[in-house]
């Protein structure tokens, strides 16, 4: 009997110690996780030096990101480093190669999402970047009367994010020019081309000029449609300019159309200035998106997870 009581006492004592240890461990774990979460936000913000890596000054996403920095308390004291799209992509690739933190301005369609499928947009609770975007076609007033066949084919042009990204990624992957890849795409997608050219008569050298931004996404759309129109006998010129000039050129009648208007958010300010002086033909691509983007290995999900510099 004494032995039974003795071993029962030992068992109860050991069980109590285990339970106390477990409870203490949970409390410590909870406290540590909370601390680690805050430290992680601070570490990421410090490691990227409170900087978002951007693209060209004046680009729609540049203007919107400048607004986001003013709007979010978590971005107080942050800066947007502007340079060029190529420089932004180079910085992103180098960071991913070394698994280092980086925050960049991003948008779909872009080939980087095909090359790096783990890229993710940070949540934008304040909606500064808006929701899904369209890329819309704008034409000058009088185009339908002056060049009805050009107007018809431009109006009927419509494709997808996947179409555009496939051209951009193949160009990047192979080193071939956007024009060369676009030519192959046109050959391989005659079903879509036939929808754009439906009811369009052949012409003999009718001149058509587009204004466009100097980015691969717009190079892809302009090159594809230009080559399709050239097959119908049009003489097409694509003039790359800054975003503001894209809209002004159409409104002033200096060019016939543009395929490069990101709406309703990205180019809203440019569009509002000229909307009464142009013809809006609606989306040529739906489901575009803009925002700030990070590699998938970064343990962060929202703009509000960042820490202010001040």
From TrEMBL:
It is found in: Cell membrane. The keyword Cytoplasm does not apply. One of its GO terms (molecular function) is amine transmembrane transporter activity. Pfam families: OpuAC. Keywords: Cell membrane, Membrane, Signal, Transport. Residues 39-187, 207-307 form the ABC-type glycine betaine transport system substrate-binding domain. Residues 1-24 form the signal peptide. GO terms for biological process: choline transport; glycine betaine transport. GO terms for cellular component: ATP-binding cassette (ABC) transporter complex. It comes from the Bacteria. PANTHER family: GLYCINE BETAINE/PROLINE BETAINE TRANSPORT SYSTEM PERMEASE PROTEIN PROW, GLYCINE BETAINE_PROLINE BETAINE TRANSPORT SYSTEM PERMEASE PROTEIN PROW. This is Glycine/betaine ABC transporter.
């Amino acid at each position: 009997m004494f032995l039974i009581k003795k071993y029962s006492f030992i068992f109860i004592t050991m069980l109590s110690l285990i339970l106390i240890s477990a409870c203490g461990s949970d409390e410590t774990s909870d406290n540590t996780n909370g601390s680690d979460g805050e430290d992680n936000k601070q570490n990421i913000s410090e490691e990227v030096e409170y900087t978002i890596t951007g693209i060209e000054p004046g680009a729609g996403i540049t203007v919107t990101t400048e607004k986001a920095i003013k709007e979010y308390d978590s971005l107080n004291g942050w800066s947007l480093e502007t340079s060029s799209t190529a420089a932004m992509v180079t910085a992103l690739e180098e960071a991913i190669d070394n698994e280092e933190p980086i925050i960049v301005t991003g948008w779909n369609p872009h080939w980087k999402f095909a090359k790096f499928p783990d890229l993710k947009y940070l949540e934008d609770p304040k909606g500064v970047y808006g929701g899904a975007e369209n890329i819309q076609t704008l034409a000058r007033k009088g185009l339908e009367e002056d060049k009805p066949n050009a107007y018809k084919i431009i109006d009927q042009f419509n494709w997808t994010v996947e179409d555009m990204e496939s051209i951009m990624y193949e160009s990047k992957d192979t080193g071939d020019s956007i024009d060369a890849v676009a030519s192959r795409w046109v050959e391989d997608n005659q079903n879509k081309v036939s929808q754009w050219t439906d009811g369009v008569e052949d012409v003999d050298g009718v001149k058509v000029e587009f204004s466009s931004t100097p980015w691969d996404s717009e190079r892809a759309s302009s090159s594809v449609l230009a080559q399709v129109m050239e097959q119908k006998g049009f003489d097409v010129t694509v003039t790359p300019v800054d975003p503001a000039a894209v809209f002004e050129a159409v409104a002033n009648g200096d060019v016939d159309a543009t395929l490069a208007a990101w709406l309703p958010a990205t180019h809203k300010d440019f569009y509002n200035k000229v909307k009464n002086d142009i013809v809006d033909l609606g989306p040529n691509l739906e489901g575009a998106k803009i925002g700030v983007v990070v590699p998938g290995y970064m343990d962060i999900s929202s703009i509000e997870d960042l820490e202010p510099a001040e």
